[in-house]
Amino acid sequence: MRVFATTSERGLNHELLPMRLYHKAKRLGIWDPKELDFTKDREDWKTFTPSEQDWILKICSLFQAGEEAVTRDLLPLIRVAASEGRLEEEMYLTTFLFEEAKHVESFRRFFDEVAEYRGDLAGYHKENYRKIFYEYLPQAMERLIHDPSPEAQAEASVTYNMIVEGVLAETGYYAFYNALAKQGKMPGLIKLVDYLKRDESRHIGYGTYLLSRLIAEHDTVWKTINKRMGELLPYAIGVINELLGDEKPYPFGLEPDDFVQYASKQFQIRMDVLERAKGRPVDEIYGISEQEVGVLS
Ligand code: MN3
Ligand code: FE
Q: Which member of 78, 185, 204, 228 lies 3.0 to 4.6 Å from 93 by CB, making a disulfide possible if both were Cys?
C-alpha cells in the first residue's frame, strides 16, 4: 500500500541539504526575467565593433542552447528522486527546473530585444560544444529513464552539475564579467549573470550533495565519477577555446590561458569536495553545510 511521507511519522526533513536549498530557492529564485532592464544594453550594443557583437552573440548562443538543454534534460533525474521516495530532493528539484526555464527565457530576451537577432545561432556551436550538449548530456540524462543505478545517476550528475554547470557555466560568467562588467557595459546582461550565478550555486550544490551521497552509499561510484570527469574535461577545455575563437587580438582583451586556468580551478574545486565524501557517514552528507558545497546567499 502507498504510504505518504507527510501523513506518516516520517514527515518532512528540513535538515536535509536539498530541503534547505528548497527554502532558499523560494526566496532567491523568484526574480522575474521580464523585469531585467535592457535599456542601456540596447545603447551599448550599437557601440560595439562587428567582431565584438559577434563574440557576444556567440557567448549568448552557447548559454542559450545550454539553458535549453538543461531544461529539457533534467526530468529523468527528478523522476529518479521521486521513484526513490526522496520527497525533499524532488521538492527542491521543482525549483531547479523552474529556474532553468527562466534562464532560457532571459537569454531569448537578449536576442529578441537587445541584439534583435532572428537568424539561426547553431553555427556558433562548434565540435567540442556539440560533443557535450548534443551528445554526452542528453545521453547521460536519458539513460536514467531505463537505468536508475547509482552509477548511471553519478554519470548524469557529473555531466550535468559538475561539467556543464560547475565548469562551463562558471567559466562563462567569468568571461561576461571580464569582457563587459569591467567596462561597465551591458548592465542588464550582467545583472542576469549575477542572478544565474546565484541560482546555479544551488544547482551545483545539489549536484555535489547527490554525488557525495552516492559516494558515501556505494563504494563503486567514485571510480565512475573520476572516469567521467576525466573523459569530459578535455571537451570542456575545448569549449572554452572555441568561445575565445582564434581571431587575434581576442575580443575585449580576453586571455585564453587565464580562462583555461580558471576552468581547471573550478574543476579541481569540485573534485576536492567530492573526494571528501569517500568513507564519510551518509548522515553527515545529509547535514552538509551550504557553505561546504559553495551555495551563495
Ligand atoms: Mn541555468
Ligand atoms: Fe542550472
A: 78
